[in-house]
UniProtKB/TrEMBL annotation:
Its EC number is 1.14.13.149. It comes from the Bacteria. GO terms for molecular function: phenylacetyl-CoA 1,2-epoxidase activity. The gene is paaA. It comes from Pontibacter qinzhouensis. The keyword Oxidoreductase applies. It is an enzyme of class 1 (oxidoreductase). The keyword Aminoacyl-tRNA synthetase does not apply. Keywords: Oxidoreductase. PANTHER family: 1,2-PHENYLACETYL-COA EPOXIDASE, SUBUNIT A (PTHR30458:SF2), PHENYLACETIC ACID DEGRADATION PROTEIN PAA (PTHR30458). GO terms for biological process: phenylacetate catabolic process. This is 1,2-phenylacetyl-CoA epoxidase subunit A. One of its GO terms (cellular component) is cytosol.
Amino acid sequence: EDAVKLAEFEARIAQGEKIEPDDWMPRLYRMQLIRMIEQHAHSEIIGALPEGTWITRAPGFRRKLALMAKVQDEVGHAQLLYSAAETLGKSREEMLTDLINGKSKYSNVFNYPTYTWADSCIISWLIDAGAIVNQMANSKGSYGPYCRALERICAEEAFHLKYGHDSVVFMATGSPAQRQMVQEALNRWWSQIMTFFGPSDKLSVHTETLMRWKVKMASNDECRQQYLDMYVPKIREIGLTIPDPHLHKNEQTGQWEYTEPDWEEFRKVINGDGPCNAERLGVRRMAEERGAWVRLALKNPTAKYVRPLA
Ligand code: FAQ
């Protein structure tokens, strides 16, 4: 019976139909979607932290307002994504518990520090650009709630991209000190940008399954290539140097060639051992603790909250 259902399910996907929460779906499809959407949601709330710390130090009122709105959007994206993941049967509480315990992953790039204002500008432009490449593709995928969330998210990310681009161009065309600051930030962030799309297709574990069921609409390497096509010229156009001497487009294959990112470092960072992993999860843990009384009051308005001893 399941074989018939599977054939029907795959036929619907092949015809470009959306799968909705009450429809039959293979267990592996459900588990893979939960994993991917949950990781995506965690990336949005953890991703708010490296830039968020720059709100109080933003250079001027306009930048402060814009950055505050952008960071708030990212947290809103997490809300949309947690709701999409919940339609598959995992509760928000369970997802947040798994984040705090280190069981669930989130994007490696947010485990690196933002030393200067320019780091936050580079994230707003070039990490958000990466997110758009990935999310535009996947918004055409097969799972209805995830695709609809991604469409809304992409619309907002498009504003982030303009804000980020404007911030980087401002510095890149500013004083020598500003130009140096933004170049140094690019030097720090380039390898993170290259790993953002996940391991090379040769090393990727889930791509084949996810692409068969149209959850992922492009492979990690395809997204990386598309990103390089779109952004290398824009970065160079404003006089910044990409810190990879091997980066060039092979005119025969039409593919970008580059120094292979350090996948061993990547493996360590996604498994909890990066420069800021402990700090990032520490902030989430504190937020959970501070919000515990609100959740308890919502569940049981007459309960008395006793703060646990540290
Ligand atoms: N970081 O087999 P694959 C944003 C893990 S949103 C950490 O290739 P898959 C907005 C992967 O989970 C950013 N872990 O995996 C923003 C798996 O481990 P597992 C997030 C990674 O799923 C901007 C293992 O490696 N975007 O930035 C990463 O086929 C600014 C094997 O990898 C999304 O989540 C990584 N980079 O492809 C917010 C989009 N890459 O679970 C604030 C949705 C791989 O078996 C400020 N997700 N891993 O233990 C996806 O498109 C995919 O899940 C990929 C990975 C492409 C991330």
